[in-house]
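== Folding task for one protein ==

=== Format: two labelled lines per protein ===

==== Paired sequence and structure tokens ====
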Amino acid sequence: MEIIRKGILYLSCIAFLLGCKQEGRVHPATRLTSDPVAAPCAEQLYTDLTDRLQQGIMLGHQDALAYGYKWYGEPGRSDVKSVCGDYPAVFGWDLGGIEQGVAYNVDSVSFDSIRAYVRTAHRLGGISTLSWHAGNPLTGGGYADVSQPDVVKRIVDDPAMRQSYLRSLDRVADFIASLTDERGEPIPVILHLFHDPNANLDLWWNTTQCTTADYRRLWMLTVDHLRHDRKLHQLLCAYSVRLDDNTDVLAACYPGDEYVDIVGLSCLWPLDACTDGQLPLPALNRNLAALTQFAEQHDKLPAITAAGLEGIRLSNFFCEQLYPVIAPYKLSYILFWRNAWDRENHYYIPVPGHPAEEDFARFADLPGILTCKKLNQHR
């Protein structure tokens, strides 16, 4: 009996010590944020995102509360809600322009409004992601200004240029620090930095303008400044590449496990992408297979960080074309791009009366797709 008693006591001590070791970390040690001193709210968000991988893919929409197809700034309105009766689970916002000290972002939404929208999304139980279409810090032009080569190299190698860039980054930091709830507590957000370095787009940070090594150095410089100099620990960092036949780009531009929490894929098809009624979905399947494998190898969360078919010219796009491809994969979220209020065909979510309205409503109702109310039901 004495031997049994001592054995029980020994096992109890081991259990207690293991419990102490994990105190302050909500999730097991195999799934931790990249920030070793992340705020509890960021740890909790990461834990929630990890748990929801088993529940389904969260539905997101860029600028969901700010405007939509042919409307702007109407309180409580959302094109997603107009069709499926619920808000998206993920709300995307862009900070482009804030680094220049202007009042409105690149999509004509005031930063004061974005702050309020982030608080509303948080109150609803949703999650906000912040992308940053940063203006060119060398020329003073926009994010698409590629008139001067080696901007990234200048930032990471030239001390004066680096300090100029960090001063502009401080405006981003000030805004993130202002994102608090009604109790004054920080709201955790996903920061989606320097998206799609491999895209065939004019972006001063893409790999036609810099080496992959300098891209990674820019990313590390940015995150280090936000975390260490500005003490912002309520962030999860999302890294993404564009849909591409060359899936090796995921590793080539990857900033490292210490700087990334979410690895993502962008798949945005333009208006003329489906003239024959078909989309290059096999390529999406190959990319998602590579993405989820990479995420598992690096213990990160996979997501589709920007998605959609511009103008939605296929009435069965959501349920019959997109969903069968994404459903086999455990993805954190899919963020559909914005419904521009001032451009006739630039929209990615259907509105009432659109040929794809019913298809999208069925998509949002699928058990494997999580809207805002479904998130709260799973809490």
Observations:
- The first strand starts at residue 57 and ends at 62.
- Residues 70 and 341 are 5 Å apart (CA to CA).
- DSSP finds twelve helices and eleven strands in the chain.
- The chain has a mean pLDDT of 91.
